[in-house]
Amino acid sequence: MEWSEEIIAQLKDLWAEGLSTAEIGRRLSITKNAVVGKAHRLGLPPRPSPIRRNGSKPKAAADKAEQPTLIPPTPEAPVSRATAPAPSVAPATQPVAATTAPTPVAAPSPAPATATEAGTVDDKTARKEKAAPITRASAKPKTLLRSISDPEPQKRRGPSCCWPIGDPGTPGFHFCGATPIPGKPYCEEHAQIAYVRLRDRRDSVA
DNA sequence: CCCTGATTCGC
DNA sequence: GCGAATCAGG
């Protein structure tokens, strides 16, 4: 796997957007493991994980007998207690990023009755499609990104596919812009990637 | 069972 | 450095 700067940039972006590792993996046509692994190596901020590994290591780690690592008795007791401190600390402008809604299912398509295509396919499979959690236009207040001609495409003209092309923050970045499928934020091409069947998403992309 | 992310470890 | 295998919680 060649982690080009661009790929890495996309990974970072998607990661920052709160997409699941699997989601990111699908989009980059790689496995979630690759995503997670790379993310860690890149030192990307970990996201809420349900698990905490530590109890046991059936693997070779088993012999990793924990050394009685003398841990200094945390000599620090600076806490003036109470939450009073933090005097001139940041004005609490901490945006906390979009960590809130990883999978908001922002699908603007309210009616699952998209018989158009769903009807034919297996009911379950069809409805199994999950809306890409990508927030419409990964337009993060990246300052420099602002310079893009129009931050709100679908505002003035017809809707356009907002699939990100390139790395947000770099000159070449842009959104797909193609005509989206009615009721969806992406064009047909990207909708296929964005909306994945839960059943056989394993090898979707390709 | 499905999902999820984290860590380990052979490559 | 990479990522499959594995682990582990929801």
TrEMBL record:
Name of this chain's protein: GcrA cell cycle regulator
Compositional bias of kind Basic and acidic residues: 121-131
Disordered: region residues: 39-164
Gene3D superfamilies for the chain: Homeodomain-like
Comp. bias regions, Low complexity: 77-104
Top-level taxon: Bacteria
Organism: Acetobacter fabarum
InterPro entries from the UniProt entry: GcrA
